[in-house]
Design a protein that fits this description.
Two copies of one chain form a homodimer. In chain A, helix 3 packs antiparallel against helix 5, helix 5 crosses helix 11 and helix 9 runs antiparallel to helix 10. With about 450 residues, chain A is α/β, with parallel strands linked by helices. Helices cover about 40% and strands about 15% of the residues of chain A. At the A-B interface, helix 6, helix 8, helix 16 and helix 18 of A face helix 6, helix 8, helix 16 and helix 18 of B.
């Protein structure tokens, strides 16, 4: 009898995070100062991040110890189950073995608490009292609110307006854990007020919300900033996902995956699953197909440029070398709010540029269709973001050879996204594909370095 | 290091359900025909239930085999984790060991699929094509919709109006799994139309919704009825919860629980956890305190009569001997919709009457306060129903002796109940306590047998 759920004991939680940086084919290019365009030193980041995280951002150590206090909290929901999708396989009549890493079992319902807990821990260690952040779909904001409550820090969340309006329950979840939340663009920051003055009906974007959270941070002594994706240290903290998955596949004698899939907004859930598997691929020991899936409406990897750009809209963040659609690109209000970001993690960008990772874009209606098939077989109603990974897994499974192993990251559930299922079920969802001319227009904002 | 999560392998899923009926101090009294008041035979139930479930309803076998096909589906989420609430214990500074059985990990987010899957399986075996049911908070409706999809049966859900309006996301979940849903009182059934004619603004009740689902069933050849609580076979299917918990406590060398707690609406999640532990208590081998917790606004066990009464409002169901507030009692629209029921499972009633189980009632604001403490420590935001069990566990833990073992059933999460948290957080929740005169008035509807 094949087990559906492959479980690990708490004692088998990884003790170290895997840092892919030293294993990359092409070394990472340094982030640059937004004004001088000179490579950044730790002191440039000190106003917004604690020193321990700055060190992790730049480290070339291949492994980083996970502090005991962080491990103890991760054990509230980790190790997460690796699940053999037997019912989905049956419905697809596929020859593949489909596995998903179920990150939806965390309190916030996604992979985001993996890094939230670590980040809040290091902030607390350095005496920080309050953390400001942005959130797109609300997954990150709720994860950070939860982590701040556990360590008794204040939490201020700027939530992209379109999600704030579409997802009132995410807002309530953030409040239930004690976080303070405002829609972005807000009237709290100068930058928010400036955006509203220019575009009173602005639905916001992650780039705008990041600018607001950073402005909030630099204006207050007691506050640091926290980012839920994109940065190297965030990718690092997420590698527990793939490290566990490797042990889980080993424990049942399954072979190395042939296909590894994650959806990408900033890149962190994809990185978390894929990077530990990429360690062997980068050394030429294995050769899995590794797919980063993005929405056609925000095609950063598939249609963007690989250039230095700002992470935010106001141009306050360091410049990083990444795929970008231009830092003032505002994607349409698709329901996968967590994938509406103009940029991409520098490490994920590096891997796509070096063709270690393949990028793919899908329309949201196709993804919702696959999400419903998944819910009606495996039970779990996935987040709209996650549905992009599911759709890719299903597409791959359709023409898979006997015994091919496909693994994807079930990055989150959709319990707070049911209004988007409502839109899909009542045929109100639209697909968007950006004409290249409009993308070229947006790309003009990318600074010349 | 103490593990938070005590896990069982899929192969350790119980193979048999435990039937408490033969172990009761006082034998169960037979259900009576609604018109003749004579004891019911299986043929009287045949129009609404498949024969296999009727047999289970009446069996005196102490153990009932779980069919393989049911086990295979239960494994999508079972065995569920038993969790040591270390963070809650720390926050309470209690000497107790608090454990909760996490039934919120099921696809529908509660214990309800345990019986939904079994019931749909037996219906499918006997050629049934469509199942009609009622739902209060929506937990049962979504569980049945999910189970029907897995076995390819149609599902018609009558949802109590107050929940239908308060919980639009539950409705969408039911629809995502393919179920059809209408608010009750509806215009579909004669009974629904009659209620609406009399009370156009009716917020509905479980009793009314049951009447509608039964009317729907008896009017159609292809349809049977399914109930998510109250009946003996439902309690039976839920005993996997307690059977697993016993194995889980044994596996870590923990002693028998001193206190066992579940919230009660119809009684099934309480029964599921408690009955397997009661086996030894009924034989005098152990003597745990076993607490059934209900809302002060619907105090069936604490203020009702132990009499024969109808399960529904229209008087279409058999008469069963139970605690009841009178079959036309309409509780106020509290947020724990699943606990708004005038009656109680005959077996749970029998155990309370015989003082094997203690009943207790709490106000909803106290329960929400405890629910937030739980969410802010253990991470999981509980269903409003479940918060009643949590509140009792916290009250017990406050004056517990060193090493006292408290276990409660975390029957469901509150992801679709965030509007009720909104009401609580914004101080809009009211508590209701029924004056005895009003209860006496309602009890006049209890028929004289």
């Amino acid at each position: 009898m094949i087990d559906r759920k492959i479980l690990l004991a708490e004692k088998d939680l990884p003790q170290r995070w895997y840092n892919i940086a030293p294993d990359l084919k092409t070394p990472l290019s340094p982030p640059l100062h937004p004004a001088t365009h000179k490579p950044l030193g730790p002191e440039d980041l000190a106003p917004i991040f604690p020193m321990a995280l700055i060190a992790q951002e730049m480290t070339m150590d291949p492994w980083v110890e996970i502090p005991n206090e962080v491990m103890e909290i991760l054990k509230i929901w980790r190790p997460t189950p690796l699940v053999r999708a037997l019912s989905l396989e049956k419905a697809l009549n596929t020859k593949a073995h489909i596995y998903y890493k179920n990150e939806s079992v965390s309190p916030a319902g996604s992979h985001k608490p993996n890094t939230a807990v670590a980040q809040v821990y290091y902030n607390k260690q350095e005496g920080v009292k309050r953390i400001a952040t942005e959130t797109g779909a609300g997954q990150w904001g709720s994860a950070l609110s939860f982590a701040c409550k556990l360590f008794d820090l204040e939490c201020q969340v700027y939530m992209v307006r379109v999600s704030f309006d579409q997802k009132p329950y995410r807002k309530l979840l953030i409040q239930s854990w004690g976080g303070k939340i405002d829609p972005s663009p807000s009237t709290i920051t100068k930058y928010g007020r400036a955006v509203l003055a220019k575009t009173p009906q602005s639905t916001g974007s992650l780039g705008i919300a990041i600018s607001e959270a950073i402005e909030d941070t630099v204006g207050r002594e007691d506050t640091k900033y926290s980012l839920g994706s994109v940065l190297n240290h965030v990718m690092l903290h997420q590698t527990v996902i793939g490290l566990e998955a490797i042990e889980q596949l080993k424990s049942i004698g399954e072979k190395n995956p042939d296909v590894i899939i994650g959806c990408v907004g900033g890149g962190s859930n994809f990185a978390g699953l894929a990077f530990p598997f990429l360690k062997d691929k980068l050394k030429g020991k294995t050769n899995p197909k590794v797919i980063a899936v993005e929405p056609m409406a925000c095609p950063t990897l598939t249609k963007g440029l690989f250039e230095y750009d700002f992470g935010d809209t106001a141009g306050m963040t360091p410049l990083v070398l990444m795929y970008t659609l231009g830092h003032d690109f505002i994607p349409p209000g698709i329901h996968a709010g967590g994938l509406r970001y103009h940029g991409m993690a520098p490490i994920v960008s590096n891997l796509v540029k070096d063709k270690v990772v393949e990028a793919r874009a899908y329309h949201q209606t196709d993804c919702f269709k696959s999400a419903l098939l998944f819910a009606q077989t495996e039970g779990i109603l996935p987040a709209p973001e996650t549905s992009h990974a599911i759709h890719a897994a299903i597409e791959e499974a359709k023409h898979a050879k006997e015994g091919q192993v496909i693994i994807f990251n079930l990055s989150g559930h959709g319990h707070f996204d049911l209004s988007s299922y409502d839109a899909y079920l009542s045929n109100k969802l639209e697909d968007y594909e950006y004409p290249m001319e409009k993308i070229k227009e947006a790309l003009k904002a990318v600074p010349k370095i």
